[in-house]
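Title: Comparing notes on inverse folding

I've been comparing how different people in this forum approach sequence design from structure. To keep things fair, I'm posting one structure and asking everyone to reply with a full sequence. Here's the target:
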């Protein structure tokens, strides 16, 4: 029972730390007003990396051994652990899925940033079709918050490109 108590203490520390990671991941992001769409992809790539690392740690043999011992001891901490494990898996899947969908926009980021306004406009119809496809098919990225954030970043990039073009001309 002494070993079980020590392992439950360790488990509670992990639970607290994982809850903190999940809470932080759900908080509003503070971003510059003129940030472009490539920052959205970078955000989700970073988040995917963090949650995948966390999943790898949770699935490690060390953690599995501790869980097995606590299961044998019928520890009450496992209920919280299983819930958090599920939440981490969902967050990791969301990040992975969002990266996959946002990569379909990656080919537009260069022309959006470096083209003249006229050339840039040639890419807008296919860009908007791709955004529409993401909205219609992504199980996670199809919220008004995500779409608003993405479209705002696309617009910021277009404005920045036009400003640069006007200043150079």
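Reply #1:
Here's my take.
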């Amino acid at each position: 029972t002494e070993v079980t108590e020590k392992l439950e203490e360790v488990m509670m520390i992990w639970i607290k730390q994982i809850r903190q990671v999940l809470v932080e991941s759900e908080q509003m992001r503070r971003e510059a007003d003129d940030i472009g769409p490539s920052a959205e992809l970078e955000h989700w790539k970073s988040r995917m990396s963090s949650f995948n690392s966390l999943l790898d740690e949770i699935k490690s043999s060390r953690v599995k051994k501790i869980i097995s011992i606590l299961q044998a001891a019928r520890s009450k901490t496992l209920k919280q652990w299983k819930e958090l494990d599920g939440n981490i898996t969902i967050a990791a899947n969301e990040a992975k899925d969002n990266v996959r969908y946002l990569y379909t926009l990656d080919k537009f980021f260069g022309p959006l940033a470096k083209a003249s306004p006229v050339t840039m406009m040639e890419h807008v119809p296919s860009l908007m079709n791709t955004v529409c496809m993401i909205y219609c098919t992504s199980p996670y990225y199809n919220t008004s918050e995500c779409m608003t954030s993405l479209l705002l970043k696309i617009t910021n990039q277009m404005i920045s490109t036009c400003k640069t073009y006007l200043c150079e001309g």
